[in-house]
Design goal:
The protein is of the alpha/beta class. 42% of the residues lie in helices and 14% in strands. A four-stranded parallel beta sheet has the order 2-1-3-4, with helices on both faces. The protein has a four-stranded parallel beta sheet with strand order 6-5-7-8. It binds iron/sulfur cluster. GO terms for molecular function: 4 iron, 4 sulfur cluster binding; metal ion binding; quinolinate synthetase A activity.
């Protein structure tokens, strides 16, 4: 299990200046490494990376890359997913303590017990899960294709959906499906973005669009606000991080309230500098993500650590659940 965030002290003492950037690039070349950074990483890590994006898009870039080493600046399950899709490459994460409270919401053992209670049910897991949970899963999903994945399962078949209860509630609402059982997991960062805060921000800025990640505790409240007319329905957009970037380039709104981890604001502001992007909750910061500091990245490249390993049989089973998702339709983006 991941250590509690408050117990973790990030690697420090290195400034992200030009000398650091040069050294990172030199070491990456020497190691034949591609640098990938998740949208929630520190801005300086996003800037030095070869590719920035959501978890699944990055894993697919990793698998298609010619580089023999992948340095995944994100949290551990994401680096594991890269290893599952690219088993012959060396995968490094700059700080293996970078866990995820959502992925930790369910273990392989708990999922096996849940399956035993519902024989014949199809298991759908969000990509924010460990390799062990993916190996017990029938079909993986991302936040942008979760509805399509569940809709592809015959309507008389029970579905076990894990680990995120807010994404599960979103899928149940969209599909109208009663035989969808939802695991009560959550991400501590997204769950902290709540409805009352969103309502207050939306009322104070009636012209703003609302970009909401479905893992947020406020996704239900946003739809409720739209339903009762507090916020015009067209202004509420439930989006994965990848889809937020697309929507940023298309919206006509002058300001956008963003409900997800605050690291996302960096890419949104780059994508559409003329729009005023503001966080619904500016304390919504994932400290696991922020363990990937300039010092940690340098350490990873100098020492070849922390290497991510996935047992080959677990990787084979986990890969099958990711492949089934890709066969169903648009793979979209993960977190
Ligand atoms: S923001 Fe939440 S779901 Fe994302 S990595 Fe952090 S703990 Fe996990």
């Amino acid at each position: 299990m991941t250590a509690h965030v408050d117990e973790l002290i990030p690697y420090g003492g290195v400034r992200a200046d030009e000398a650091w950037a040069e050294e990172v690039r030199r070491l990456a070349d020497e190691r034949d490494a591609v640098l990938l950074a998740h949208n929630y990483q520190l801005p300086e890590i996003q800037e030095i990376a070869d590719h920035t994006g959501d978890s699944l898009a990055l894993s697919r870039i990793a698998a298609a890359s010619d580089a023999s080493t992948i340095v995944f600046c994100g949290v551990h399950f994401m680096a594991e997913t890269a290893k599952i899709l690219a088993p012959d490459k060396t995968v490094l994460i700059p700080d293996a303590r970078a866990g995820c409270s959502l992925a930790d919401s369910i273990t392989g053992e708990q999922l096996r017990e849940w399956k035993a209670q519902h024989p014949g049910a199809v298991v759908v897991s969000y990509v924010n899960t460990t390799a062990e949970v993916k190996a017990e899963t029938d079909i993986c999903c991302t936040s942008s294709n979760a509805v399509d994945v569940v809709a592809s399962i015959p309507s008389d078949t029970e579905v076990l959906f894990c680990p995120d209860q807010f994404l599960g509630a979103h899928v149940r609402r969209e599909t109208g499906r009663q035989n969808l059982h939802v695991w009560a997991g959550e991400c501590h960062v997204h769950a902290g973005i709540n409805g009352p805060e969103l309502a207050e921000r939306a009322q104070a800025d009636p012209e703003a669009d609302l970009f909401i990640h479905p893992e947020c505790g406020c996704a239900t409240s946003a739809l409720y606000l739209a339903g009762e007319g507090t916020v015009a329905p067209g202004r509420v957009k439930i989006l994965s991080t990848g889809d937020m970037l697309k929507a940023a380039k298309q919206t006509k709104a002058g300001s956008v309230l963003v409900a997800t981890e605050t690291g996302m604001l960096h890419q949104l502001r780059k994508a559409a500098p003329e729009i005023d992007f503001r966080a619904v909750n500016d304390r919504a910061t994932c400290r696991y993500m922020k363990l990937i500091t300039p010092a940690a990245l340098l350490r990873a490249l100098r020492e070849g650590v922390d290497e991510v390993h996935v047992d080959p049989e677990t990787a084979r089973l986990a890969r099958a659940s990711v492949q089934r998702m890709i066969e169903i339709g648009k793979p979209g983006g993960g977190e």
